[in-house]
Amino acid sequence: MARIKKQLDLIFPGEQVREPVIYRVSREYDIVFNIRRAKVTETTGELVLEFEGEESEVEKAVEYLAGKGVKVQPLPHDIVE
Questions:
Q1: What is the Cα–Cα distance from 59 to 16, expressed in whole angstroms?
Q2: Angle between helices 21-28 and 55-67 (to 10 degrees)
Q3: pLDDT the model gives residue 6
Q4: Within 10 Å of residue 2's Cβ, how many Cβ atoms?
Q5: Cβ 1 vs Cβ 57: under 8 Å
Q6: Whether CATH 3.40.640.10 fits 3-80
Q7: Over the stretch 34-53, which tens digit does the pLDDT of each residue have?
Q8: DSSP 3-state of 5
Q9: Can you name the residues that pair with 11 across neighbouring β-strands?
């Protein structure tokens, strides 16, 4: 399977702002993440992240985030290597 880099815009609801969701994703799935931009307040958080890994692992990580209530939007400049 191909390794990919996928840029994502993540919006965290208030109850997830203080949880280590990204840490858990990186421990659970074989991906590397790079924070491109972050804005976090007491009530919401928005991150632009780049996930790198096998396509299936990246997809599982995205599903995990969505299951936690995180709104996940792919950004149009994904990179396939």
A1: 20
A2: 150
A3: 92
A4: 8
A5: no
A6: no
A7: 999 999 888 888 999 999 99
A8: strand
A9: 46, 71
3-state secondary structure 41-81: CCCCEEEEEEEEEEHHHHHHHHHHHHHCCCEEEECCCCEEC
pLDDT of residue 56: 95
Find how far residue 53's CA is from the centre of its chain. Answer: 12
Q: In the chain, pLDDT over 90 holds for what percent of residues?
A: 64
* Alpha-carbon dihedral angle through residues 38, 73, 2, 50, given to the nearest 10 degrees: -10
Torsion of CA 42, 40, 53, 29, to 10 degrees: -10
Ranges in the chain, pLDDT < 50: 79-81
